[in-house]
Amino acid sequence: MQSRMQNPAVVLSDAMPAIQSLFKAVHSGGVDARTLELVHLRVSQINGCSACVDGGAKSARKAGVNDERLATVAAWREAPYFTEPERAALALAESATRLADRPDAVNDEVWDAAATHFDEKQLAALVLMVGVTNLFNRLNASTRQIAGAWG
Question: Which pTM was predicted?
C-alpha cells in the first residue's frame, strides 16, 4: 500500500498546530489518559483508520492500557476489563462517531450514562476527543496514510 499524499494536516502548515492545540485542550479536561486513548482507539477501529489504530494502540499502551484491554476494546460490551466510566465513554464515542446510524445519534440514555461518570468539562474533553479522532481518521483514510509510517 502506498499513501496518496502526505497527511493534509502536514501539507497545510497551519493545520497541525491547531489540531495539536485541540489535543492539548482535550488532555486538560480531567479525563484519565487511558480512557481518552481507549476512546481514540475505538473510534479509529470503527472508521477503519489503520494509521490511527496502530498509533492509538501504541499511545494507549504508553498511557498504561494493558494488552487484554487493547485486544478487546472492539468488543468492550462483552469483555470484563472495562470500568463503568470507560464503558460510558466508549458508548458515547461510538454513538458520536456513527451519526448516521440512527435518527437520534447520541440518545439520552448514552448521554446520561456518560454524564453520570463525567462532569461537563470531562464530557467536553470526551466529545472533542471523538471529534479530533474522527478528523484524523478522515484525513488518514482518504489519503491512505500507512500504519506505522509516522514513527
Answer: 0.94
